[in-house]
Automatic annotation (TrEMBL), chains A, B:
Pfam families noted in UniProt: Pyrid_ox_like
Protein name: Pyridoxamine 5'-phosphate oxidase-like FMN-binding protein
Stored InterPro entries: Split_barrel_FMN-bd, Stress-Dev_Protein, YdaG_split_barrel_FMN-bd
Lineage, opening ranks: Bacteria, Bacillati, Cyanobacteriota, Cyanophyceae, Nostocales
Organism: Nostoc cycadae WK-1
Domain (General stress protein FMN-binding split barrel) ranges: 10-139
Length: 148, 148
């Protein structure tokens, strides 16, 4: 069932859906066309224009994959709530110190021990084009959120 | 850290990792290159040659995507055990009645109400090439299982 509300409400709905899910699985495309995923710590916030942010190391393998192919998927799973969310979008790497300071959360120190002073700390900006979700209410058929 | 054991042990290890996780998120590539994922009920069994099986409807959108591009990723998430698994492989559709009867589980009736008599019931065969996993022991760096 397509949701025909405006973009703001759809983003708010998506924000509510992913809230409290600590990790998203980011899927990227390798040069040989194979698909790989890895857990990304969620900072639990969506920009009002439909952007997801993750902290990453600028030298990681996933970043070199994204430089070759920007298409990504981020899935969020809450088995407790029987909720499964697929977010399709494009990703780009940003080393914007101001944005990093704005988004930084203390728990990220687990992966980036030097915090905001980590030399190759970077942001992954995921511009959301479409989201689909399944939950205990929707059963087999997904609900769609279209932001493109 | 690469695990240098033989293929049988690696498949057994992967089997142990995904055991008890009810759903995997299957990511496929759309014709326009965008990536989409959807929850697939896990039948909790890996073939000894490194094959994952899922029941699907032969007419679903994900199947038409796979007919155009066989590359898929299946991710399994257990937030309780802080375990995140990425399985990279290729998928194909099979309508093998004998294999379906062998793999069928009663809980699948939730999605396929007519059971094995469901007209467009089919199997998705995922041939695993590589798996990576992260858990509370491995922290930021994944463990690799290579089956190709």
């Amino acid at each position: 069932m397509a949701i025909s509300t405006n973009s703001d409400r759809q983003i708010q709905e998506l924000q509510t859906l992913i809230k409290g899910i600590d990790y998203g699985m980011l899927t990227t495309v390798n040069d040989d066309g194979s698909l790989h995923s890895c857990p990304m710590h969620s900072i639990d916030e969506l920009d009002t224009d439909g952007t997801l942010w993750f902290f990453t190391s600028a030298n990681s393998h996933r970043v070199s994959e994204i430089e070759h192919n920007q298409q990504v998927n981020v899935s969020f799973t809450s088995s407790q709530n029987q909720r499964y969310i697929s977010i399709s979008g494009t990703a780009q790497l940003l080393q914007d110190r101001q944005k990093m300071a704005e988004l930084w959360k203390p728990e990220l120190q687990t992966w980036f021990s030097q915090g905001l002073n980590e030399p190759d700390l970077a942001l992954l900006k995921v511009s959301i084009k479409q989201a689909d979700y399944w939950d205990s209410r929707s059963s087999y058929h997904p609900q769609h959120i279209n932001l493109s």
